[in-house]
Amino acid sequence: MAKKIVGYIKLQIPAGKANPSPPVGPALGQRGLNIMQFVKEFNAATQQMEPGMPVPVVITAFADRTFSFITKTPPNTYFLKKAAKVDKGSSTVGKGSAVGRVTMSQLREIAAQKMVDMNANDVDGAVRMLAGSARSMGLTVVEG
């Protein structure tokens, strides 16, 4: 028989750097889950990733106080900032002050990595979505 699910917890935690302090501790604590067990398992699952990379995680809490979790690919903005080599997006988008540039080939690489978590039908659709995200961050999309 399947275990009864009591809820889902969605967090974004840096890869390999989960610890029991907020937001992780309180989110798991209120469901009565073993915080240290999650921290150990999450850090083990993300240790091969780039340290500090933000990793969205969905934790499924069961009625018997056990849990399972799945990690997703990092947010589009993380990859876009890395590709454009900028620390943050533009604070004044659309005012003609581009903070960086990304090429179509970079967008294609990101789309290939993100495809599992995107709701695009094909890589071209994913590239168009990423191009829109890039523009809304103040990045210029160039051919190449």
Give a brief outline of the structure.
The protein is an alpha+beta fold and 144 residues long. Helix content is 36%, strand content 22%. The strands form 2 sheets. Strands 1-2-3 form a 3-stranded antiparallel beta sheet. A two-stranded parallel ribbon has the order 4-5.
Q: Can you walk through the features of this model?
A:
This protein has 144 residues and is of the alpha+beta class. The chain folds into 2 domains: 5-71, Ribosomal protein L11, N-terminal domain, CATH 3.30.1550.10; 76-142, Orthogonal Bundle (Arc Repressor Mutant, subunit A), CATH 1.10.10.250. Helices cover 36% and strands 22% of the residues. It contains 5 helices and 5 strands, in the order βααββαβααβ. The chain has helices at residues 24-29, 35-46, 76-84, 104-114, 123-136; strands spanning 5-14, 54-62, 67-71, 100-103, 139-142. The strands form 2 sheets. It has a 3-stranded antiparallel beta sheet. Strands 4-5 form a two-stranded parallel sheet. A hairpin with a 4-residue loop joins strand 2 and strand 3. Helix 4 (104-114) packs across helix 5 (123-136). The model has no long low-confidence stretch (mean pLDDT 78).
- What is the rounded distance between the termini? 54 Å
CATH uppermost class of the largest domain:
Alpha Beta
Q: SSE order in H/E notation? A: EHHEEHEHHE
> What is the count of β-strands?
5
- What proportion strand? 15-25%
Overall number of domains: 2
